[in-house]
């Protein structure tokens, strides 16, 4: 910086602080600084800190600080002076002349340039002060001045002096951080509007210059011969990369998106893509930016930190979108050097650990971020080369992921592998827009699939042997994720890749399964149980475990709600095999039948069997083998995990395949339908085998909760679907299970499992003809009835512990019955459950001191109301209401009046009873919302009890209990507010009529919900509630009454949320709606609040602008009423209003 | 209620615990840990190696002393579960820190002390206030303790 020194800071005499300069100031400052840096006692530290803080508040400190900085050799004192200057200039900006400001800025720059050995923290603080000065002057000074400053920085960056270049880059970095800070920059004490205008000015004028400087420097550094090793160059590169990252993550202002504007005001939530304006095109695409970055990467790849930042820059750059790409040609021009760079980067033999994830993510983004239809623009040999490399990486990651596991908890390679596999899936999915993708994928899929398989196999042809043996005996807790969850993304991708080459994938899996099964058979025949054998078995189990997981993911997808279908690729494969005569129906069928009889398993298999069927047959063989081993009491040698895998596989497979629906497919494969389809003998045989398996698992693995849970899920899959259920009910084993579920060992199953079992038993009943069902009923439900009767008799009036167990068992089954409710079995289930619910009220009385019983009773009611009420006829509904009221009264009698004490160790679990009660009440309201039940004969007239009666009865009891302490439990809190909000939505006319105490309790809880940090959902619910109440008031023109009065207070609450408190943009819509309803209701209050707010502004221009903004929001000539057009127009105006007012009122 | 006396009589002499398979125990239920009747506050399973068999880890709090006990056992094994009984009595009087209690049938007893801790303090303060209230007595393994206070509500 030319010609400036400390002398250049000319201050007018009058500005000098009246007290003059303390001659000992420097000494005192140095003392205080030394004290702080020398680990002082708390007292000394406090005194020193106080001294420094006071110093920072010095008025007009410019001359003093400049002198001190020149005189002292203490870095910390320099740092303190810089801070003081920064704070003072912001505070006293208005009193400073432009000349003063300039000289201060130039002094600081010169100071930092003259002292290249300053510690980094001091240097950064000084350049930050400079940046703050520059930004503060943005709207006052002309652009020339700033341009001049930046061009001086440019000169610095281009100079030969490395230290000067670092200072130049640091200053640019500081400028970018201040201008683009999104609320993270220095606190200026100015409105948001100021910050945004500065940002826009900088973005339009200087940012591009900065980018050019960066590009040139990048070019220069990347052209270096050899790898730099001196720290000066490395520091320079570090600075440069940091600056590049700042630019690539810059969020450009978009004028039209108001929501985005609001998002800008809140903290940046994620890295948005790089979206430069079109003027940047030449620089981003045309000047080799990507090439230079990759070259630079080569220089820094051995420096972990620099390499990481450089990779981050590349990853962010690859996300570039928007106007810079006007056509696919430009897209391709950008993509091609990226692929080339990637190839170059990965040509080394091994990657360092810090590169693993970045490189994989880069590959993934290259194919997922760019529109894949542009892949055609990439020269085919380059694309081929890229994919070849990606395939090599995928295979090596797949190997390393298994082998690095022992060393680290979370394997880097696993994450990387997931990214790479995702890339392949993306490629396969793009085959419609880019047809060669299919073939490309098929070229590489076999390698990847095979490597993935081998990496997971421990024996003979696998590579995982050493990896597995080390964690053989590791303790695994049930809360830990199992492989199925942990690797679910990987497995889905690998399954998908397998489908692209079905012939290879299926035959490989089948072959491996077949071998392992024979080995297992041999091991089990000669079961010595020695440690050596256990080790061998363990390996075998692990192989089988992975084979089943991969096979399951290959054959079928899992989805909620949608009909499960056989993947197209597999269906097509099966069809074409049959057409080419590779597979035959007869051979396929006999293979399937053989696999279901263990004595026929050794029969030679036909090679004319369908590939898919053959794979499934192997799993049936494995399953039967396991069942026979269990019968031979070899279960101590068996693996519960493998048992889970087997039933899990069947469940996944059964969804789309077993008794498949031909109508779902344009064309079906004959061998598949003959083996698995409707009416095939082998399909019914398969169902029988599966039901037997379920029973066997329940008997053998009773105490293995995870096995029984997976098993009962299989049973549910079988019984949920009507076609399969028709086969299930033919099985004797089902009848056995249904009758025996009250006895050991089934009573020992985990609670959830017993519920699900009962549910399946009832599903089965729904599929029976009426006479069969009658018989089934006597054998299954009658015992439940009888036992309940006995129980109720015995426990009347007392809760003896002998009955406790039985009560628990029966109630759990009752919950299972309730869970089985469906639209097609309503009357059956209701007639079963209703008398038991009546009994349960008695049980609740008898066992009121036993929370576990209370919870179960409430649960049974809640489930019934949730799943049944909407289908019940009016008559049945009435019965249910009445018994529910009895329940609530009984509960209240024993639990009311004591309040709920929440001690420190309490967990949400402890309040399960309240939670269930709240859920139950919420579900009751739903009846008035959704009702499919018939209204009987119409002559019944008005029902004597409506859901509202029950709800209000419960409310009366439950609302007073909901203290602020209880609401700290998140799900309890959410459930309570859901109840209140639904209540006001469905019964807006009844709520204002509630008894005064209850009503004010509810209103107080709304206030609590809005002002506490219960989260966005709760706030939304509270606002919805207020809106409903306000609309009700407006509709009926109420100007009195408790509801009208209570709402008055909330006008201000909501207004404050809109303009003063930190705003969550997602709440804006609901805030607007609520606010409108509230001001319609309380127009006078609104006018008064506006008046107050405007009046409270110290600054007249702010007050005027504020008043004008309110005028535009609610113009006096537009009436405030609930007409739809007025409402929606108000909401549009509100967005502008909030933006405007917030940029005036928010200060930072 | 007349048969309640018989009911209780039938129970005396019966075992104070019964066996139950470990996997059938629940959180918030009861179990004997190191011969102490405990409420299960934590229950988790684990296995040795991916293909191992399940073991159950139990953490319990002694229902009388509040001390913490832990145990691990294979999920197929049986554990002893204490018979736990809770009964409400009306508090009639307190003399020498012994409570005079009356049950539903009008029978009274004076053999239980006001417990230490919060519950005891609440009993004393509400008694001094002249409130009418019930005390819940927990009984297990031949030990009894007042564990809660309840306002009497009209039946």
UniProtKB/TrEMBL annotation, chain A:
| Annotated ranges, domain Exportin-7/Ran-binding protein 17 TPR repeats | 606-752
Q: Name one GO biological process term.
A: protein export from nucleus
Q: Tell me which UniProt keywords the record has, alphabetically.
A: Cytoplasm, Nucleus, Protein transport, Transport
Sorted alphabetically, which Pfam families does this protein's record hold?
A: TPR_XPO7 (PF25795)
Q: Where is the protein situated, by its record's location annotation?
A: Cytoplasm; Nucleus
> Major place of localization?
cytoplasm
Q: Does the keyword Cytoplasm apply?
A: yes
| GO CC terms | cytoplasm; nuclear pore
Give the Gene Ontology MF terms in alphabetical order: nuclear export signal receptor activity
Stored InterPro entries: ARM-like (IPR011989), ARM-type_fold (IPR016024), TPR_XPO7/RBP17 (IPR057947), XPO4/7-like (IPR044189)
Similarity remark = Belongs to the exportin family.
Name of the featured protein:
Exportin-4
Instruction: Tell me which species this is from.
Output: Branchiostoma lanceolatum (Common lancelet)
Phylogenetic classification of the source organism: Eukaryota, Metazoa, Chordata, Cephalochordata, Leptocardii
What is the gene called?
Answer: XPO4
């Amino acid at each position: 910086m030319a010609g400036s020194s400390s002398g250049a800071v000319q201050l007018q005499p009058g500005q000098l602080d009246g007290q003059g300069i303390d001659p000992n100031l420097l000494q005192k400052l140095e003392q205080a600084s030394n004290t702080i840096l020398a680990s002082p006692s708390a007292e000394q530290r406090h005194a020193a800190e106080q001294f420094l803080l006071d110093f920072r508040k010095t008025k007009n400190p410019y001359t003093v600080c400049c002198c001190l900085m020149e005189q002292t050799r203490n870095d910390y004192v320099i740092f303190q002076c810089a801070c003081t200057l920064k704070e003072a200039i912001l505070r006293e900006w208005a009193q400073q002349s432009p000349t003063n400001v300039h000289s201060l800025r130039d002094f600081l720059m010169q100071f930092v340039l003259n002292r290249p050995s300053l510690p980094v923290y001091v240097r950064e603080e000084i350049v930050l002060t400079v940046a703050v000065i520059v930004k503060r002057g943005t709207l006052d000074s002309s652009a020339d001045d700033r341009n001049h400053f930046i061009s001086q920085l440019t000169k610095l960056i281009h100079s030969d002096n490395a230290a000067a270049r670092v200072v130049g880059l640091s200053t640019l970095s500081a400028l970018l951080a201040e201008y683009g800070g999104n609320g993270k920059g220095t606190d200026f004490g100015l409105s948001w509007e100021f910050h945004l205008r500065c940002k826009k000015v900088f973005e339009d004028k200087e940012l591009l210059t900065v980018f050019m400087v960066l590009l040139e420097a990048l070019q220069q550094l990347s052209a270096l011969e050899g790898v730099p090793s001196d720290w000066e160059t490395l520091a320079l590169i570090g600075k440069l990369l940091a600056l590049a990252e700042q630019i690539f993550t810059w969020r450009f202002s978009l004028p039209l998106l108001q929501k985005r504007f609001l998002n800008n005001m809140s903290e940046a939530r994620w890295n948005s893509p790089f979206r430069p304006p079109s003027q940047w095109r030449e620089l981003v695409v045309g000047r080799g930016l990507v090439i230079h970055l990759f070259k630079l990467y080569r220089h820094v790849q051995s420096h972990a930190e620099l390499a990481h930042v450089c990779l981050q820059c590349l990853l962010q750059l690859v996300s570039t979108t928007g106007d810079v790409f006007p056509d696919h040609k430009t897209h391709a021009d950008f993509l091609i050097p990226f692929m080339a760079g990637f190839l170059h980067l990965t040509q080394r033999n091994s990657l360092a650990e810090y590169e693993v994830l970045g490189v994989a993510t880069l590959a993934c983004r290259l194919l997922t971020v760019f529109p894949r239809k542009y892949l055609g623009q990439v020269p085919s040999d380059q694309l081929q080369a890229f994919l070849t490399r990606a395939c090599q990486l995928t295979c090596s990651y797949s190997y390393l992921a298994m082998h690095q596991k022992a060393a680290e908890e979370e394997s880097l390679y696993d994450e990387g592998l997931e990214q790479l596999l995702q890339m392949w899936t993306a490629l396969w999915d793009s085959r419609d827009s880019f047809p060669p993708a299919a073939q490309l994928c098929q070229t590489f899929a076999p390698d990847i699939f095979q490597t993935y398989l081998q990496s997971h196999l421990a024996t003979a042809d696998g590579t995982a042997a050493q990896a597995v043996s080390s964690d053989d005996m590791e303790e695994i807790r049930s809360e830990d994720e199992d492989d199925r969850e942990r690797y679910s993304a990987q497995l889905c991708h690998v399954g998908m890749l397998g489908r692209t080459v079905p012939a290879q994938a299926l035959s490989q899996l089948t072959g491996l399964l077949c071998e392992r099964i024979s080995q297992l058979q041999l091991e089990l025949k000669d079961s010595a149980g020695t440690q050596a054998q256990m080790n061998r078995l363990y390996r075998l189990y692990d192989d089988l475990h992975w084979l089943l997981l991969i096979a399951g993911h290959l054959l079928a997808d899992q989805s909620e709600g949608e009909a499960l279908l056989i993947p197209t690729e597999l269906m097509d494969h099966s069809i074409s095999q049959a057409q080419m005569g590779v597979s035959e129906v007869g051979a396929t069928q006999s293979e399937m039948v053989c696999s279901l009889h263990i004595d026929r398993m050794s029969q030679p298999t036909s090679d004319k069997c369908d590939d898919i069927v053959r794979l499934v047959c192997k799993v049936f063989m494995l399953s039967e083998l396991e069942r026979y081993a269990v019968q031979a009491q070899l279960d101590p040698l068996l693996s519960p995990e493998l048992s889970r895998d087997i039933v899990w596989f069947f469940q996944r497979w059964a969804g789309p395949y077993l008794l498949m629906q031909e109508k779902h497919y344009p064309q079906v494969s004959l061998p598949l339908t003959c083996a698995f389809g409707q009416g095939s003998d082998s399909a019914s045989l398969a169902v029988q085998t599966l039901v037997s398996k379920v029973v066997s698992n329940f008997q053998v693995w009773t105490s293995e909760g995870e096995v029984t849970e997976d098993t009962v899920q299989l049973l549910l899959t079988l019984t949920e679907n009507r076609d399969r259920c028709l086969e299930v009910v033919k099985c004797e084993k089902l009848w056995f299970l249904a009758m025996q579920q009250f006895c050991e060992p089934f009573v020992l199953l985990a609670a959830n499992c017993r519920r699900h079992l009962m549910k399946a038993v009832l599903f089965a009943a729904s599929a029976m003809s009426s006479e069969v069902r009658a018989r089934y009923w006597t054998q299954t439900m009658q015992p439940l009835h009888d036992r309940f009767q006995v129980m109720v008799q015995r426990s009347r009036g007392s809760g003896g512990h002998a009955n406790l167990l039985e009560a628990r068992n029966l109630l759990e089954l009752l919950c299972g019955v309730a869970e089985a409710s469906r639209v097609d079995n309503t009357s059956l289930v209701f007639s079963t459950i209703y008398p038991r619910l009546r009994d349960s009220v008695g049980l609740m009385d008898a066992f009121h001191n036993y929370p576990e019983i209370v919870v179960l009773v409430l649960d049974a009611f809640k489930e019934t109301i949730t799943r049944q009420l909407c289908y019940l006829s009016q008559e049945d509904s009435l019965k249910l209401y009445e018994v529910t009221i009895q329940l609530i009264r009984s509960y209240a009698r024993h639990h009311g009046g004591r309040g709920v004490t929440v001690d420190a160790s309490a967990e949400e679990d402890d309040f399960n009873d309240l939670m269930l009660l709240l859920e139950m009440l919420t579900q009751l309201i739903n009846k008035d919302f959704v009702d499919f039940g018939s209204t009987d004969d119409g002559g019944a007239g008005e029902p004597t009890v409506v859901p509202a009666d029950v709800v209000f009865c419960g409310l009366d009891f439950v609302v007073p209990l909901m203290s602020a302490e209880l609401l700290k439990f998140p799900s309890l809190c959410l459930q309570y507010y859901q109840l209140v909000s639904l209540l006001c939505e469905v019964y807006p006319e009844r709520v204002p009529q509630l008894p005064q105490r209850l009503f004010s309790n509810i209103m107080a809880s709304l206030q609590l919900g809005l002002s506490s940090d219960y989260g966005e959902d709760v706030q939304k619910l509270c606002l919805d509630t207020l809106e409903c109440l306000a609309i009700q008031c407006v509709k009926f023109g109420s100007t009195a009454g408790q509801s009208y009065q209570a709402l008055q207070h909330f006008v201000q609450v909501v207004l404050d949320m809109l303009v003063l408190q930190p705003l969550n943009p997602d709440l804006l819509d609901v805030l607007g709606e609520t606010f409108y309803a509230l001001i319609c209701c309380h127009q006078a209050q609104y006018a008064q609040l506006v008046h107050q707010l405007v009046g409270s502004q110290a600054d007249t221009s702010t007050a005027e602008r504020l008043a004008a903004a309110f005028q535009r929001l609610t113009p006096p000539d537009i009436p405030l009423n609930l007409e739809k057009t007025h409402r929606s127009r108000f909401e549009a105006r509100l967005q502008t209003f909030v933006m405007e007012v917030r940029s005036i009122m928010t200060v930072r | 209620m007349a048969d309640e006396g018989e009911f209780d009589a039938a129970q005396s002499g019966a075992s104070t615990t019964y066996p139950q398979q470990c996997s059938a125990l629940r959180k918030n239920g009861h179990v004997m840990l190191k011969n102490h009747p405990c409420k299960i506050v934590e229950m988790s399973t684990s296995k040795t190696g991916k293909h191992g068999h399940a073991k159950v880890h139990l953490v319990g709090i002694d229902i009388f002393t509040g001390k913490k006990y832990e145990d691990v056992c294979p999920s197929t094994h049986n554990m002893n579960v204490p018979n736990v009984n809770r009964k409400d009595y009306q508090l009639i009087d307190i003399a020498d820190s012994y409570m005079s209690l009356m049950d539903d049938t009008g029978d009274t007893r004076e053999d239980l002390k006001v417990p230490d801790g919060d519950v005891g303090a609440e009993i004393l303060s509400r008694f001094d206030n002249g409130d009418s209230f019930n005390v819940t007595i927990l009984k297990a393994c031949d030990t009894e303790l007042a564990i809660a206070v309840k306002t009497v509500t009209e039946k």
